[in-house]
Design brief:
globular, 241 residues, alpha+beta, Phosphatase 2c, domain 1, 6-stranded antiparallel sheet
Length: 241
């Protein structure tokens, strides 16, 4: 198993409110991205707090014993931490963050998801989106009011309908995805997919995984990304060792 990651503040932001996690190369583990929001740098605090909470909960556990409900509980715990800090610290009031986390097990990945940071599977040169955005424009797409191609131009494309830290109780989506040798799992914040179309992401991944994280971020910057950009890739060379 090989892991690659990169995070950048982007072309127009003064701070990077994204946070990422990837283990050292080798065996199974977990990867995560979080995209924070809130004034007074509180978004940066929220995303870092979620990643720290996930690490404290998941590091050292046997991935083979982590089930979807384990990730739900881990994200609920992170939500409680961010929510309490938001209530107790006036500078952090109203802060929140997305979170997408994937635990890599033998033969599969278990994914937990809140917000519009995405998980993709790249297999045999083809990219497929695993998660569904918790966003206003996705709701419009689901109800047939706009097409998927219209979403990138919608004035409210950055409005999310779920986030960690905003409410005491959150809904967490989970997915279990089969993994084969040669597959790659890509997690990203919306700074990537809002600037780089899926077809271009697929093309970059097809050109080689080892440099893909850097090339994806550079493509987003070149395309005029308006937001922070974060990418984490887990590549199955021949399975978990």
């Amino acid at each position: 198993m090989r892991y690659y990651s990169r995070t950048e503040k982007g072309n127009y932001r003064n701070e990077n409110e994204d946070c990422v996690y990837a283990p050292k190369d080798g065996g199974c583990g977990f990867i995560a991205v979080a995209d924070g929001m809130g004034g007074h740098r509180a978004g940066e605090v929220a995303s870092a707090m979620v990643i720290q909470s996930l690490a404290e909960t998941l590091e050292g556990l046997d991935p083979e014993n982590i089930m979807p409900e384990s990730l739900v509980n881990a994200l609920l715990k992170a939500n409680e931490r961010v929510s309490q800090d938001s209530k107790n610290n006036p500078l952090h009031y109203g802060m929140g963050t997305t979170a997408t986390v994937a635990v890599i097990r033998s033969g599969c990945a278990v994914i937990g998801h809140v917000g519009d940071s995405r998980a993709y599977l790249f297999r045999d040169g083809k990219l497929s989106q695993i998660t569904k955005d918790h966003s206003y424009v996705q709701m419009l797409i689901d109800h047939g009011y706009i097409s998927k191609s219209d979403a990138h131009r919608h004035p409210h494309k950055n409005v999310i309908t779920r986030a960690i830290g905003i409410d005491d109780v959150i809904d967490v989506d989970t997915h279990t995805v089969e993994l084969r040798g040669g597959d790659s799992l890509l997690l990203c914040t919306d700074g990537l997919n809002s600037a780089v179309p899926d077809g271009e992401i697929e093309s970059i991944l097809s050109d080689g995984i080892s440099e893909a994280a850097d090339r994806l971020v550079e493509a987003a910057l070149k395309n005029g990304a308006q937001d922070n950009i974060s990418v984490v890739i887990a590549h199955m060379e021949g399975g978990c060792q």
